[in-house]
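Predict the 3D structure for this chain.
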Amino acid sequence: MSGPLSHIRVLDLSRILAGPWASQTLGDLGAEIIKIERPQVGDDTRQWGPPYIKDEDGNDTRDAAYYMSANRNKRSVAIDMAAPDGQALIRDLVAHCDVVIENFKVGGLKKYGLDYDSLKKIKPDLVYCSITGFGQTGPYANRAGYDFLIQGMGGLMSVTGQPGNGPEAGPVKVGVALSDVMTGLYAVIGVQAALAHRDRTGEGQHVDLALLDVQVATLANQAMNYLASGNAPGLMGNAHPNIVPYQAFATSDGHMILAVGNDNQFAKFCKVAGMAELAEDERFTTNASRVKYRDELVPILRERIVKDELDWWISQLETAHVPCGPINTIDRVFADPQVQARDMKVELDHPVAGKVPSVGSPLKFSNSPVEYRNAPPVLAADTKDVLKSVLSLSEDDITKLAERGIVQQ
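Done. Predicted structure below.
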């Protein structure tokens, strides 16, 4: 391995999405990821299908596409964490690792001796990252947290959805578990920062990440709009609270996103639309005035844009350097030449399926590129190898553990 984190070994005790997303990203960057799973069952998301990946004969395997989305570049080791001997094995592995990632409920690992306070006695410079719904402290600390719940509690759904009182009005969740994904990315940042601190001081530490904290932090300009004005923003559909026109519009045969970011772009759009005089109207000359008179401007634009086809608008506006684009379905996303040119779909070797698709990493390095070493592993694929290579257990030792149900090989 030659990635920028190829000197780092991570013990991944997490499952579902936020934790696995973090460890997959660290694995993409070269870290060795040892994923601890329950024997015979594994990560819950292995069963979160259909769809499942197909074997080479076209039959469903045991692994769902959901699991495959967040578990490449890992080694699967199946250990019974509920058994004292399983806990001892995990503690032995911790002594050989730089990072632990877990997403159990607050205090959930203490009874196993796998909490931070217990493990730092084994490895004082350990970086231990906990991911929970609400964090290690506060009145909600003991609650379970799920992405959908956090999107609501964290304010994202209050600014996502259609305004009004019609049947389609109201808050809507984002179509991806975005709170989980963003928390996974913040976990990567936190782990790398803690490792940098360790490199300078020799000190490990506990990184405490909460989905709710991350969701609040990533409200970005919407949060600051409220903090600056005292007015809570509400539902605006596809419109933008601070920029006009910056929303979706219907064309004669589809939908287009028009993303005018400054007054010059608005003037260019008006020229393409054959309405150059609109850019001279004092109500619309500046973005601030367009925001103020949004309700007057947007109907004018809708009436004009719907008269021409999507491809015409895209072609004309791109030539005029006005930001715009189609609303693609996901099949069209992966057919897009730009997405293909950036290698955002990759094929990985898999012992059961032969080849499996995977979404490429967005990280592009000039000197230490992302490596796709292996597809998400089948359950327990690496138990024997890791216990032998890391803990120096013999074949006989591992066989006896497997016979007792402590490990699966």
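The radius of gyration is 25 Å.
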